[in-house]
Description:
The protein has 6 helices and no strands. By secondary structure, it is an all-alpha fold. Among the domains are: 10-21 and 32-56 and 104-122, no CATH class; 59-93, no CATH class. This is NTP pyrophosphohydrolase MazG putative catalytic core domain-containing protein.
Amino acid sequence: MENKKIEIPHLNELCRAIFQQNKEKGFWNREINIGECLMLITGELGEALEADRKGRRVRFADFEETVEKAGYQLYEFAMDRHYKVLSQLFLDMVKDTLEDEIADAVIRLFDLAAALDIDLESHIWAKLMYNKGRAELHGKLY
Length: 142
């Protein structure tokens, strides 16, 4: 990894979009409790562990292919007339998989970052640069 800033296009924009959608759904109608937010993220990671323990995995390409074979495109999720069919396909193939739960955790992290006005792109870059110079396993056993 070079010592120049890695561009993560639109990461902060994605964080803000997630925050805005969640705000519209009522998730930010009260004061932020950071501890609660962090525990909800931890909960999603616990669900990811359980999905892995149960062997619940999905290749997104398989989901996408099934959607296309059914005559739809993923962007049609936003269209009311297709939402029911596409949601059912999502529930049948993706919901509660390792990938779904990791996505939930990331969505919650990005949502919190936007709520706290954290420039996640810059912080990730800075942390990667810091970690680059650290010892193997960052000086720990694992």
